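Posting for a labmate who doesn't have an account.
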Amino acid sequence: MAQLGTQSIQFEEAPYILSSASVVGAKEGEGPLGKKFDVVGQDDQFGEETWEAAESALQKEAAVLAMGKAGLKKDAIRYIFGGDLLGQSIATTFGLMELNVPLFGLFGACSTAGEALSLAAMTVAAGYADQVLAVTSSHFASAEKQFRFPLEYANQRPLSACWTVTGGGAFVVGRKGKTGAAAPSDGKTEAAAPSGGKTGARITGITTGRVMDYGVKDSMNMGAAMAPAACDTIYRNFLDFGRGPQDYDRIVTGDLGYVGREILIKLLQEKGFDITSAHMDCGIEIYDRKAQDTHAGGSGCGCSAVTLSAHILPQIIKGAYRRVLFVPTGALLSKVSFNEGQTVPGIAHGVVIEHG
Protein backbone atom coordinates (compact mmCIF):
# COMPACT_ATOMS: atom_id res chain seq x y z
CA MET A 1 0.00 0.00 0.00
CA ALA A 2 1.06 3.58 -0.59
CA GLN A 3 0.01 6.59 1.43
CA LEU A 4 -0.92 9.45 -0.87
CA GLY A 5 -1.17 13.08 0.14
CA THR A 6 -2.94 13.84 3.39
CA GLN A 7 -5.93 11.48 3.40
CA SER A 8 -5.62 8.75 0.76
CA ILE A 9 -4.28 5.25 0.20
CA GLN A 10 -3.53 3.57 -3.13
CA PHE A 11 -3.48 -0.22 -3.01
CA GLU A 12 -0.56 -1.95 -4.72
CA GLU A 13 -2.61 -5.14 -5.05
CA ALA A 14 -6.20 -3.97 -5.26
CA PRO A 15 -8.79 -6.13 -3.48
CA TYR A 16 -11.91 -7.12 -5.40
CA ILE A 17 -15.57 -6.74 -4.64
CA LEU A 18 -16.34 -10.42 -5.12
CA SER A 19 -20.09 -10.06 -4.83
CA SER A 20 -22.82 -7.80 -3.55
CA ALA A 21 -26.52 -7.90 -2.75
CA SER A 22 -29.34 -5.41 -2.27
CA VAL A 23 -32.60 -5.77 -0.33
CA VAL A 24 -35.10 -2.90 -0.37
CA GLY A 25 -38.60 -1.93 0.66
CA ALA A 26 -41.71 -1.53 -1.46
CA LYS A 27 -41.26 2.19 -2.16
CA GLU A 28 -37.73 1.65 -3.44
CA GLY A 29 -39.00 -1.19 -5.61
CA GLU A 30 -41.42 1.22 -7.26
CA GLY A 31 -38.60 3.59 -8.23
CA PRO A 32 -36.43 3.74 -11.39
CA LEU A 33 -34.04 1.04 -10.11
CA GLY A 34 -36.75 -1.30 -8.88
CA LYS A 35 -36.06 -4.16 -11.28
CA LYS A 36 -32.35 -4.18 -10.47
CA PHE A 37 -32.56 -4.97 -6.77
CA ASP A 38 -32.14 -8.56 -5.58
CA VAL A 39 -35.10 -8.50 -3.21
CA VAL A 40 -38.01 -6.08 -2.98
CA GLY A 41 -40.06 -6.53 0.17
CA GLN A 42 -43.82 -6.31 -0.22
CA ASP A 43 -44.17 -5.58 3.48
CA ASP A 44 -41.74 -3.02 4.93
CA GLN A 45 -41.91 -4.85 8.25
CA PHE A 46 -40.32 -7.88 6.56
CA GLY A 47 -42.44 -10.17 8.68
CA GLU A 48 -41.27 -8.63 11.96
CA GLU A 49 -43.22 -6.92 14.74
CA THR A 50 -41.12 -3.73 14.94
CA TRP A 51 -39.41 -1.42 12.46
CA GLU A 52 -36.05 -2.04 14.11
CA ALA A 53 -36.39 -5.81 13.79
CA ALA A 54 -37.43 -5.33 10.16
CA GLU A 55 -34.21 -3.45 9.46
CA SER A 56 -32.19 -6.22 11.11
CA ALA A 57 -33.96 -8.77 8.93
CA LEU A 58 -33.28 -6.99 5.66
CA GLN A 59 -29.63 -6.40 6.58
CA LYS A 60 -29.13 -10.06 7.43
CA GLU A 61 -30.81 -11.10 4.16
CA ALA A 62 -28.47 -8.86 2.17
CA ALA A 63 -25.43 -10.33 3.95
CA VAL A 64 -26.50 -13.93 3.34
CA LEU A 65 -27.29 -13.19 -0.31
CA ALA A 66 -23.89 -11.58 -0.88
CA MET A 67 -22.07 -14.55 0.63
CA GLY A 68 -24.17 -16.94 -1.45
CA LYS A 69 -23.36 -15.09 -4.67
CA ALA A 70 -19.66 -15.37 -3.89
CA GLY A 71 -20.08 -19.09 -3.23
CA LEU A 72 -18.91 -18.65 0.35
CA LYS A 73 -20.18 -19.97 3.64
CA LYS A 74 -20.06 -17.77 6.70
CA ASP A 75 -16.97 -19.60 7.98
CA ALA A 76 -15.03 -18.18 5.02
CA ILE A 77 -15.70 -14.61 6.18
CA ARG A 78 -12.94 -13.43 8.50
CA TYR A 79 -14.52 -10.18 9.63
CA ILE A 80 -17.67 -8.12 9.16
CA PHE A 81 -17.60 -4.33 9.02
CA GLY A 82 -21.14 -3.09 9.50
CA GLY A 83 -23.33 -0.36 10.87
CA ASP A 84 -26.60 1.53 10.65
CA LEU A 85 -28.31 4.70 11.91
CA LEU A 86 -29.86 3.39 15.10
CA GLY A 87 -28.57 3.81 18.65
CA GLN A 88 -25.86 1.28 19.54
CA SER A 89 -26.16 0.01 15.94
CA ILE A 90 -28.94 -2.35 16.97
CA ALA A 91 -30.02 -3.12 13.41
CA THR A 92 -26.55 -4.54 12.74
CA THR A 93 -25.87 -6.26 16.05
CA PHE A 94 -29.26 -7.99 16.23
CA GLY A 95 -29.32 -8.70 12.50
CA LEU A 96 -25.86 -10.23 12.15
CA MET A 97 -25.55 -11.84 15.57
CA GLU A 98 -26.66 -15.25 14.30
CA LEU A 99 -23.88 -15.33 11.68
CA ASN A 100 -21.40 -15.61 14.55
CA VAL A 101 -18.64 -13.86 12.56
CA PRO A 102 -16.21 -11.38 14.21
CA LEU A 103 -17.80 -7.95 13.87
CA PHE A 104 -16.47 -4.41 13.79
CA GLY A 105 -19.45 -2.15 14.47
CA LEU A 106 -19.28 1.17 12.62
CA PHE A 107 -21.06 4.49 12.70
CA GLY A 108 -20.56 6.89 9.85
CA ALA A 109 -24.23 7.77 9.50
CA CYS A 110 -25.19 7.62 5.80
CA SER A 111 -21.49 7.36 4.85
CA THR A 112 -21.24 3.93 6.48
CA ALA A 113 -21.10 2.06 3.13
CA GLY A 114 -17.95 3.98 2.22
CA GLU A 115 -16.42 3.52 5.65
CA ALA A 116 -17.14 -0.22 5.65
CA LEU A 117 -15.74 -0.73 2.14
CA SER A 118 -12.65 1.32 3.01
CA LEU A 119 -11.85 -0.70 6.10
CA ALA A 120 -12.64 -3.98 4.35
CA ALA A 121 -10.29 -3.10 1.48
CA MET A 122 -7.51 -2.06 3.88
CA THR A 123 -7.87 -5.29 5.85
CA VAL A 124 -7.72 -7.51 2.76
CA ALA A 125 -4.92 -5.54 1.09
CA ALA A 126 -2.81 -5.75 4.27
CA GLY A 127 -3.21 -9.52 4.39
CA TYR A 128 -5.26 -9.66 7.56
CA ALA A 129 -8.15 -11.45 5.87
CA ASP A 130 -8.95 -13.25 2.62
CA GLN A 131 -12.65 -12.39 2.58
CA VAL A 132 -14.42 -9.64 4.49
CA LEU A 133 -18.06 -8.59 4.51
CA ALA A 134 -19.05 -4.91 4.41
CA VAL A 135 -22.72 -4.34 5.20
CA THR A 136 -25.08 -1.53 6.15
CA SER A 137 -28.76 -0.67 6.21
CA SER A 138 -31.40 1.94 6.97
CA HIS A 139 -35.17 1.94 7.29
CA PHE A 140 -37.50 4.88 6.78
CA ALA A 141 -39.71 4.12 9.76
CA SER A 142 -36.96 3.27 12.24
CA ALA A 143 -35.01 6.41 11.30
CA GLU A 144 -38.07 8.68 11.57
CA LYS A 145 -38.88 7.15 14.93
CA GLN A 146 -35.38 7.79 16.28
CA PHE A 147 -34.44 11.14 14.75
CA ARG A 148 -37.74 12.91 14.12
CA PHE A 149 -41.27 11.80 14.97
CA PRO A 150 -43.18 8.50 15.00
CA LEU A 151 -45.09 7.97 11.75
CA GLU A 152 -48.40 8.29 13.60
CA TYR A 153 -47.61 11.95 14.28
CA ALA A 154 -47.88 12.71 10.53
CA ASN A 155 -45.72 15.83 10.69
CA GLN A 156 -45.27 18.07 7.65
CA ARG A 157 -42.02 17.53 5.80
CA PRO A 158 -40.30 20.53 4.13
CA LEU A 159 -39.24 20.33 0.49
CA SER A 160 -35.57 20.20 1.54
CA ALA A 161 -36.13 16.92 3.41
CA CYS A 162 -34.83 13.62 2.06
CA TRP A 163 -36.60 10.27 2.34
CA THR A 164 -34.67 7.64 4.28
CA VAL A 165 -34.24 4.58 2.08
CA THR A 166 -35.51 1.27 3.40
CA GLY A 167 -32.74 -1.02 2.24
CA GLY A 168 -29.66 -3.03 3.05
CA GLY A 169 -26.55 -3.56 0.97
CA ALA A 170 -23.76 -6.09 1.50
CA PHE A 171 -20.41 -6.57 -0.25
CA VAL A 172 -17.87 -9.38 -0.06
CA VAL A 173 -14.37 -7.95 -0.46
CA GLY A 174 -11.56 -10.38 -1.15
CA ARG A 175 -8.22 -11.03 -2.82
CA LYS A 176 -9.41 -12.35 -6.16
CA GLY A 177 -12.32 -11.54 -8.44
CA LYS A 178 -13.90 -14.96 -8.21
CA THR A 179 -17.38 -14.01 -9.31
CA GLY A 180 -17.81 -10.27 -9.62
CA ALA A 181 -21.44 -11.09 -8.99
CA ALA A 182 -22.83 -7.65 -8.34
CA ALA A 183 -25.86 -8.01 -10.61
CA PRO A 184 -29.15 -9.26 -9.16
CA SER A 185 -29.73 -12.98 -9.33
CA ASP A 186 -32.94 -12.63 -11.33
CA GLY A 187 -30.96 -12.15 -14.54
CA LYS A 188 -32.76 -8.93 -15.45
CA THR A 189 -29.59 -6.86 -15.64
CA GLU A 190 -26.11 -7.16 -17.09
CA ALA A 191 -24.34 -10.46 -16.56
CA ALA A 192 -21.67 -10.64 -13.88
CA ALA A 193 -18.06 -11.49 -14.59
CA PRO A 194 -17.28 -15.16 -15.28
CA SER A 195 -16.52 -17.32 -12.28
CA GLY A 196 -12.83 -17.78 -11.66
CA GLY A 197 -11.80 -14.77 -13.73
CA LYS A 198 -10.20 -11.53 -12.64
CA THR A 199 -12.60 -9.30 -14.50
CA GLY A 200 -14.73 -7.40 -12.07
CA ALA A 201 -14.65 -4.43 -9.72
CA ARG A 202 -11.47 -3.58 -7.83
CA ILE A 203 -11.06 -1.12 -4.96
CA THR A 204 -7.86 0.61 -6.04
CA GLY A 205 -7.80 3.39 -3.47
CA ILE A 206 -9.60 5.26 -0.72
CA THR A 207 -9.82 8.80 0.59
CA THR A 208 -10.92 8.97 4.21
CA GLY A 209 -13.12 11.93 5.06
CA ARG A 210 -12.85 14.57 7.75
CA VAL A 211 -15.69 15.92 9.90
CA MET A 212 -16.86 19.17 8.31
CA ASP A 213 -19.20 21.66 9.99
CA TYR A 214 -20.54 24.71 8.15
CA GLY A 215 -22.98 25.60 10.90
CA VAL A 216 -26.14 24.03 9.44
CA LYS A 217 -28.70 23.36 12.18
CA ASP A 218 -31.65 22.23 10.06
CA SER A 219 -32.01 18.46 10.45
CA MET A 220 -34.57 18.53 7.65
CA ASN A 221 -31.94 19.71 5.18
CA MET A 222 -29.38 16.91 5.17
CA GLY A 223 -28.13 17.83 1.71
CA ALA A 224 -26.90 21.22 2.91
CA ALA A 225 -25.30 19.68 6.00
CA MET A 226 -23.42 16.97 4.08
CA ALA A 227 -22.38 18.80 0.90
CA PRO A 228 -19.30 20.47 2.45
CA ALA A 229 -17.96 17.08 3.57
CA ALA A 230 -18.50 15.62 0.10
CA CYS A 231 -16.72 18.61 -1.39
CA ASP A 232 -13.74 18.23 0.93
CA THR A 233 -13.31 14.49 0.30
CA ILE A 234 -13.62 14.82 -3.48
CA TYR A 235 -11.20 17.76 -3.49
CA ARG A 236 -8.67 15.86 -1.36
CA ASN A 237 -9.01 12.84 -3.62
CA PHE A 238 -8.18 15.00 -6.64
CA LEU A 239 -5.13 16.47 -4.90
CA ASP A 240 -3.85 13.22 -3.36
CA PHE A 241 -4.17 11.16 -6.56
CA GLY A 242 -3.25 13.99 -8.95
CA ARG A 243 -6.57 13.64 -10.73
CA GLY A 244 -9.55 15.70 -11.78
CA PRO A 245 -13.16 15.12 -12.83
CA GLN A 246 -12.01 13.99 -16.28
CA ASP A 247 -10.26 10.98 -14.70
CA TYR A 248 -13.53 9.47 -13.45
CA ASP A 249 -16.42 8.15 -15.50
CA ARG A 250 -18.68 8.88 -12.56
CA ILE A 251 -18.28 10.70 -9.26
CA VAL A 252 -21.06 9.21 -7.15
CA THR A 253 -22.23 10.86 -3.95
CA GLY A 254 -24.49 9.00 -1.59
CA ASP A 255 -27.26 11.05 -0.15
CA LEU A 256 -27.13 14.72 -1.11
CA GLY A 257 -30.32 14.82 -3.14
CA TYR A 258 -31.24 17.77 -5.31
CA VAL A 259 -30.45 20.43 -2.72
CA GLY A 260 -27.08 19.01 -1.71
CA ARG A 261 -26.01 18.33 -5.30
CA GLU A 262 -26.42 21.99 -6.23
CA ILE A 263 -24.38 23.11 -3.21
CA LEU A 264 -21.65 20.52 -3.87
CA ILE A 265 -21.17 21.57 -7.48
CA LYS A 266 -20.88 25.22 -6.50
CA LEU A 267 -18.40 24.50 -3.69
CA LEU A 268 -16.13 22.50 -6.00
CA GLN A 269 -16.36 25.13 -8.73
CA GLU A 270 -15.02 27.62 -6.18
CA LYS A 271 -12.02 25.29 -5.78
CA GLY A 272 -11.49 25.11 -9.55
CA PHE A 273 -13.18 21.80 -10.35
CA ASP A 274 -16.42 21.34 -12.29
CA ILE A 275 -17.87 17.87 -11.72
CA THR A 276 -21.26 18.61 -13.29
CA SER A 277 -20.97 16.19 -16.22
CA ALA A 278 -19.52 13.32 -14.16
CA HIS A 279 -21.60 13.65 -11.01
CA MET A 280 -24.30 11.18 -9.94
CA ASP A 281 -26.14 11.10 -6.64
CA CYS A 282 -27.67 7.89 -5.30
CA GLY A 283 -30.41 9.85 -3.55
CA ILE A 284 -31.50 11.24 -6.90
CA GLU A 285 -31.21 7.97 -8.83
CA ILE A 286 -33.24 5.78 -6.48
CA TYR A 287 -36.56 7.64 -6.57
CA ASP A 288 -38.74 9.20 -9.27
CA ARG A 289 -39.05 12.85 -8.29
CA LYS A 290 -42.36 13.36 -10.06
CA ALA A 291 -44.09 10.07 -9.32
CA GLN A 292 -42.87 9.50 -5.74
CA ASP A 293 -43.28 11.95 -2.88
CA THR A 294 -39.68 12.04 -1.68
CA HIS A 295 -39.05 15.79 -1.93
CA ALA A 296 -35.26 16.34 -2.14
CA GLY A 297 -34.42 12.67 -2.85
CA GLY A 298 -33.16 9.69 -0.87
CA SER A 299 -30.80 9.32 2.08
CA GLY A 300 -29.88 6.78 4.75
CA CYS A 301 -27.12 4.18 5.00
CA GLY A 302 -29.00 1.92 2.61
CA CYS A 303 -29.35 4.56 -0.10
CA SER A 304 -25.78 4.49 -1.43
CA ALA A 305 -25.27 0.82 -0.56
CA VAL A 306 -28.17 -0.58 -2.58
CA THR A 307 -27.58 1.84 -5.48
CA LEU A 308 -23.93 0.85 -5.67
CA SER A 309 -24.79 -2.84 -5.62
CA ALA A 310 -27.71 -2.85 -8.03
CA HIS A 311 -26.95 0.02 -10.39
CA ILE A 312 -23.29 1.09 -10.38
CA LEU A 313 -21.26 -2.10 -9.88
CA PRO A 314 -22.83 -3.88 -12.87
CA GLN A 315 -21.72 -0.94 -15.05
CA ILE A 316 -18.17 -1.21 -13.68
CA ILE A 317 -18.04 -4.97 -14.13
CA LYS A 318 -19.06 -4.84 -17.78
CA GLY A 319 -16.66 -1.94 -18.44
CA ALA A 320 -19.19 0.81 -19.13
CA TYR A 321 -17.56 2.68 -16.25
CA ARG A 322 -13.80 2.18 -16.04
CA ARG A 323 -13.20 4.20 -12.89
CA VAL A 324 -15.72 5.52 -10.33
CA LEU A 325 -15.23 7.64 -7.23
CA PHE A 326 -17.88 6.49 -4.75
CA VAL A 327 -18.48 9.05 -1.98
CA PRO A 328 -21.30 8.24 0.47
CA THR A 329 -22.10 11.15 2.79
CA GLY A 330 -23.25 11.18 6.41
CA ALA A 331 -24.84 13.69 8.79
CA LEU A 332 -23.39 13.22 12.28
CA LEU A 333 -26.28 14.15 14.53
CA SER A 334 -28.31 12.46 17.22
CA LYS A 335 -31.66 13.30 18.74
CA VAL A 336 -29.80 14.60 21.79
CA SER A 337 -27.40 16.86 19.88
CA PHE A 338 -30.22 18.26 17.77
CA ASN A 339 -32.47 18.99 20.75
CA GLU A 340 -29.56 20.71 22.51
CA GLY A 341 -29.21 23.11 19.58
CA GLN A 342 -26.00 21.69 18.15
CA THR A 343 -25.09 21.94 14.49
CA VAL A 344 -25.20 19.01 12.04
CA PRO A 345 -21.61 18.12 11.02
CA GLY A 346 -21.02 15.96 7.97
CA ILE A 347 -18.53 13.37 6.81
CA ALA A 348 -17.88 11.59 3.51
CA HIS A 349 -15.63 8.65 2.65
CA GLY A 350 -14.26 8.17 -0.86
CA VAL A 351 -13.72 4.75 -2.46
CA VAL A 352 -12.10 4.42 -5.90
CA ILE A 353 -13.58 1.44 -7.75
CA GLU A 354 -12.21 0.37 -11.14
CA HIS A 355 -12.97 -2.20 -13.81
CA GLY A 356 -10.37 -4.89 -14.21
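Reply:
Got it, the C-alpha coordinates are right above this. The two ends are 18 Å apart (CA to CA).
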